Each structure stands twice: as structure tokens, then as C-alpha cells.
């Protein structure tokens, strides 16, 4: 049987190219979990670097959003799946 996910965020950008997209994807995954849904975040192309330790340090787009590193830390304590596709 195939696994399904209620919310899927796919990121292609690294923390330098578009911190807003990264922050929003992690924020939406957190909102989905709070509402009782499942969530997955897929890291592709330049976004694979976000899986490295401390890659999100300093990524903070400001209020009303939390810093991306804090969002990822909170999500990692919950049932969020992360998929990373290494570029060819």
C-alpha cells in the first residue's frame, strides 16, 4: 500500500537564494501537524544542503515567522518526513 501525506513541501532553493520559501515550507508543515495532518518536506537540487548540520543558522525572515532553524528543530521532534534528492 502506498503511503500518503496530507502536506508536501518541495524546496529547490538553499538558504542564501531564497530564505522566505524555506521558512514558509517549514512553517506550513508545522501548521499541518498542529491540525492533525501528516507532513513531508522534500529537499531537491540546491536545497539538499539544508540537511547539513547548522545549515539554517541565521535564516530568519522576521515576524511573524520563527527562524528556520527553530522551525526545523521543532519539526524534527514530530512526525515530519524529510526526503533529500542529491543532484546529478
What does this structure look like?
Strand 2 (39-44), helix 2 (68-76) and strand 3 (80-85) form a beta-alpha-beta unit. The chain is α/β, with parallel strands linked by helices and 88 residues long. It has a 3-stranded parallel β-sheet, with helices on one face. The chain contains 2 helices and 3 strands. It has one domain. The longest helix is centred in the N-terminal third of the chain and has 16 residues, at 19-34.
Compact overview of the structure:
The chain has 88 residues and is α/β, with parallel strands linked by helices. It has helices at residues 19-34, 68-76; strands spanning 7-11, 39-44, 80-85. It is built from two helices and three strands, in the order βαβαβ.
Shape: globular
The portion of residues assigned to helices is: 25-40%
Strand residue percentage: 15-25%
Biggest sheet: strands side by side, in what order?
1-2-3
Radius of gyration equals 12 Å
Number of helices: 2
Distance between the termini: 29 Å
Q: Runs with pLDDT <50, length 5+? A: none
For the largest beta-sheet, the strand count, sense and barrel status come to: 3 strands, parallel
What are its keywords?
88 residues, alpha/beta
Layout: helices, strands, pairs:
Elements (H helix, E strand, L loop, with lengths): L6 E5 L7 H16 L4 E6 L23 H9 L3 E6 L3
Parallel strand pairs: 1-2, 2-3
